[in-house]
Amino acid sequence: MSDYVVRQITDAESRETFDLLVRSLHGNPPSDERWAKVSDSWAADGRTGAFHDGEAIGIASSFATTLTVPGGATVPMGAVDGVGVRADWTRRGVLTAMMDRQLHDFVRRGHVVAALHASEALIYGRFGYGVATRMATLQVKQPAPLRESVDLPGRVRLLATDEAIATIPSLYQRIDTHRPGMIARPEPWWPIAFNWHLHPDGGNHRVAVHTGPNGDDGFAVFHVVPQNSYLDPERGAALEVHELHAATPEALAGLWRFLLSVDLIEVVNARGRPVDDPVGLLLVDPRRAQTIGVDDELWLRLIDVPAALAARTYGSREPVVLEVNDRMLPDNRGRYRVSSNGVERTEDEADLQLDVDTLAMLYLGAWEAGPLALSGRIAGASAETLARVDALFRTGTQPWTGTHF
Ligand SMILES: CC(=O)SCCNC(=O)CCNC(=O)[C@H](O)C(C)(C)COP(=O)(O)OP(=O)(O)OC[C@H]1O[C@@H](n2cnc3c(N)ncnc32)[C@H](O)[C@@H]1OP(=O)(O)O
């Protein structure tokens, strides 16, 4: 028998478990003033805790949202926004027990998928999560003028903090979660993940909005870090881009033009961009823009495999029969025939075998089947089967989330 219990936290335990989470990530727990600003975002519902003698020793937290899947449908999603175990309780199965409870809680709540951003790549595969979107870190050295042929009639304006807090949530909604991998941002997401960072103690981020022919259609969030010193007084600052969302390619380009035009900047860094961000192509000298890293972004877990497979669309090719294994949610186990007309359970012989984390890697179209087979994640498939899987699962656009939680 374990010497701790795992259960839903109560409202009275919200702050204690938030502090525990922040400490597990080596941050400083919030002051009373900050807690007052973010506590509404940390309601007890959906948060699993582990307790020893009434004291919190672990937290696995989540909120409800939706995920856009290939074809444009959205599915209910549990967004796992905070996981931590107190340092004196690690490697004793606390996370495993919390993940088990949380996955079954997601089933009860009718979530079709769950997702998270992982602090380390070795933690979540065992719980059925696979890397389903990737993100690029871009660096643009200044000066980086745009090509003369880039014709951008839109305008960009900077917002005051209060205006940004009041207007960006509805602008994000209007821009729409148009790419596979994007998620809706529910109300509690904003105070903790957006508003706080505009505060002087939270990073002093600035917000720029793009206006196109149909009104406001994009925004960027950024802050500037001075790099000069008394030894190097002329050195320009670094402009750090935290968010860049746009409804149209023109709005995206217009925001890039603005970010690259700010004075006294030596370099513009943008983390968390889609891997197909077009900024380099807009420039007179494309080498001014470099991709300096590509990392895993969204880790996806299919909670209800039949519902998830049925929600997305597929390319045109002969069907393939997948045999899916799921260690933690056995109802998902079985064979599925995937075709351009949809998905059904079948008793037919399987064309390949894979675990549910690998299916999540294929699901949004981020990976090709060949490397997944090469690495042993897909078993039993011929080259012809792998080509069929690619033709069925491939999407026109690289999936991307663009929202941290
Ligand atoms: C979504 C997010 O919030 S990501 C943030 C995650 N949190 C952090 O990184 C904060 C610091 N770390 C922690 O709080 C803890 O170490 C956690 C939450 C990562 C792991 O909690 P634990 O209670 O130690 O995990 P648990 O004991 O259940 O381990 C389960 C298995 O995962 C392995 N594991 C756990 N953490 C790690 C890790 N960081 N790296 C590699 N393997 C790990 C364990 O060795 C164990 O393997 P086994 O089943 O083969 O024995």
Automatic annotation (TrEMBL):
Keywords: Acyltransferase, Transferase
Keyword Nucleus: no
Record flagged with keyword Transferase: yes
Gene3D superfamilies membership: 3.40.630.30, SCP2 sterol-binding domain (3.30.1050.10)
Residue ranges of the TM segments: none
Top class in the EC scheme: transferase
Enzyme Commission identifier(s): 2.3.1.-
N-acetyltransferase domain location: 4-153
GO MF entry, a single one: acyltransferase activity
Active site per database record: 124, 405
Binding site for acetyl-CoA: 83-85, 91-96, 119-120
Classification via PROSITE patterns: GNAT
Protein family according to the UniProt entry: Belongs to the acetyltransferase Eis family.
Subunit structure of this chain's protein: Homohexamer; trimer of dimers.
Protein known as: GNAT family N-acetyltransferase
